[in-house]
């Protein structure tokens, strides 16, 4: 019986080798097809992703559009020093970090909780309707969302009518972060739960039924059965979101800004837009944007190392 098993395994290994060799032979004979299909994607990536990276040089020179990137005089780290020594540097950095960190702390667990709750809904029809209602805000434009927020929170809006007040929430610096984070959770939490819901499909139903038979409550079932199925996905999403902690959405912040809430709403990305596009200070705005990117990369590497140590060496 053992000989038959060994013979069968040897045949499978030979079959795999034959399939692999056949694949290599087919690739060698028809490599032109692969080149034709891959070439457009490679060209687009190179043209729109790698070539623009040369613009980073603007951050180290006093850029003149007539002289061009290569002909403009070099100034070294002057614009970085100018930004770091600016009296508003700590304000912009603090606003950016607060919006990102608070948004991560409040917004990151919500999709996970939604996925656990959706997994408890047994009737497929009801679950699909709930999912449709949760996913729908994600397909609304950011500008439309900001318009809805402004209408709801205006002096004559529904919120003030409900509270019986006449408060313009959009002019209150202390209310900006709450408005930004709460609206972001409403818009993106349902869509963010899709990956976790899909991962929960891999959870063992037999193990869950056994846990129920043993008298495990809902939290114990989640801990023993469902959490291991999505743990790797949670780790990856956490690393990616922390790595983008400085890349907070520019459009939404800018659309919700008013002259009276700039104290808490002015972040690095809006500052770069105003200095670069509105004021035409391309070199300074490029230096600030590059600083932002460097901080993101450092955070990504650090968080990946921390999570890998906490997760038995498993990171990105």
Number of β-strand runs: 0
Overall form: globular
Q: Determine the mean pLDDT.
A: 84
SSE order, one letter for each helix or strand: HHHHHHHHHHHHHHHH
**What integer value in Å does the Rg equal?**
27 Å
**Mind describing the biggest β-sheet?**
none
Structural classification: mainly alpha
* CATH class group of the largest domain: Mainly Alpha
Q: Report the β-strand fraction as a percent range.
A: under 5%
The third-level CATH topology of the largest domain is MetI-like fold
CATH-level-4 superfamily name of the largest domain: MetI-like
Count of alpha/pi helices: 16
* Alpha-carbon distance between the two ends: 44 Å
Stretches where pLDDT is under 50 for at least 5 consecutive residues are 1-12, 14-18
Number of domains: 2
CATH architecture of the largest domain: Orthogonal Bundle
The helical percent reads over 70%
């Amino acid at each position: 019986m053992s000989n038959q098993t060994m013979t069968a395994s040897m045949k499978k290994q030979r079959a795999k080798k034959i399939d692999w060799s056949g694949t290599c032979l087919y690739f060698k004979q028809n490599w032109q097809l692969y080149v034709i299909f891959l070439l457009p994607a490679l060209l687009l990536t190179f043209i729109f992703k790698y070539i623009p990276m040369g613009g980073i040089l603007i951050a180290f020179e006093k850029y003149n559009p007539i002289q061009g990137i290569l002909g403009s005089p070099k100034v070294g780290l002057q614009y970085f020093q100018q930004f770091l020594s600016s009296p508003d540097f700590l304000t912009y950095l603090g606003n950016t970090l607060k919006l990102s960190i608070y948004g991560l702390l409040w917004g990151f667990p919500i999709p996970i909780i939604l996925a656990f709750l959706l997994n408890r809904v047994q009737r497929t029809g009801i679950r699909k309707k709930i999912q449709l209602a949760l996913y729908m805000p994600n397909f609304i434009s950011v500008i439309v969302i900001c318009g809805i927020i402004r209408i709801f929170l205006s002096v004559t809006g529904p919120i003030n009518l409900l509270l019986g007040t006449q408060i313009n929430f959009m002019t209150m610096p202390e209310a900006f972060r709450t408005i930004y984070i709460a609206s972001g959770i409403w818009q993106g939490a349902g869509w963010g739960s899709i990956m976790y819901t899909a991962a929960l499909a891999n959870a063992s139903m037999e193990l869950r039924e056994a846990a129920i038979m043993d008298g495990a409550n809902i939290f114990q079932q989640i801990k023993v059965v469902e959490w291991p199925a999505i743990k790797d996905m949670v780790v990856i999403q956490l690393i990616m979101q922390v790595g983008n902690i400085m890349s907070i959405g520019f459009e939404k912040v800018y659309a919700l800004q008013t002259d009276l809430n700039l104290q808490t709403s002015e972040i690095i990305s809006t500052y770069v837009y105003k200095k670069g596009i509105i004021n035409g200070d391309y070199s300074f705005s490029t230096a600030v944007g590059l600083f932002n990117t460097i901080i993101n990369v450092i955070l990504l590497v650090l968080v990946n190392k921390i999570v890998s140590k906490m997760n038995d060496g498993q990171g990105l």
